[in-house]
Specification:
With 155 residues, the chain is of the alpha+beta class. The chain folds into two domains: 70 residues, no CATH class; 68 residues, Multidrug-efflux Transporter Regulator, Chain: A, Domain 2, CATH 1.10.1660. Helices cover 50% and strands 14% of the residues. It contains five helices and seven strands. Strands 5-7-6 form a three-stranded antiparallel beta sheet. Strands 1-4 form a two-stranded antiparallel ribbon. A two-stranded antiparallel sheet has the order 2-3. A hairpin with a 2-residue loop joins strand 6 and strand 7. The longest helix has 29 residues. It is extended. The protein starts with 7 loop residues before the first strand and ends with a helix. The relative contact order is 0.10.
């Protein structure tokens, strides 16, 4: 079942076409303002009211990224950079088992700290590991592609 909470929107919760329309409008507003300006967006919520909302530009850029993901049918979640995750939360984000993640922690591949007997991983550290892992995977794929070309392997 698709759900939305204050910091998470599951895939399918938001209509993709509605998100795409909103994204186009936000991009138009961004294109019509200077990069050092706050951005004014008129928001009409479910509860009525005609107040105009003025947002800092970086916030609107992030909002555009959220709308872009929603328009592609993806879910989104906002996590503060200083958030700490449990081992299960971190394992879920990496799409690995909790024992595998604990092995990464014990080998020092991802920094963590102990709170009593429990390990906590900073979101920023996990994100850095995921970025580095993505770079390693892309390099391995490029190496395999080069070998395919070198040996003339056809698909």
């Amino acid at each position: 079942m698709a759900t939305a909470s204050g910091r998470k929107i599951d895939p399918g919760t938001v209509d993709q076409q509605s998100a795409e329309r909103a994204l186009r409008r936000v991009k138009d507003v961004l294109a019509s303002t200077r990069s050092d300006q706050a951005v004014t967006i008129e928001v009409r919520g479910e509860h009525g009211g005609d107040e105009v909302l003025v947002l800092p530009r970086p916030t609107v850029l992030m909002f555009a990224d959220i709308l872009a993901a929603l328009s592609r049918g993806k879910g989104v979640q906002i996590v503060p950079l200083n958030a700490e995750l449990t081992t299960q939360q971190a394992a879920d984000m990496l799409n690995v088992s909790r024992p595998y993640l604990i092995g990464l922690l014990e080998r020092g591949e991802i920094p963590h700290r102990l709170v009593g007997r429990h390990r906590r991983i900073k979101y920023a550290d996990l994100s850095e590991y995921m970025d580095a892992e993505d770079v390693r995977q892309r390099a391995a794929l490029a190496d395999l592609t080069a070998l395919d070309q070198e040996f003339g392997v056809d698909e």
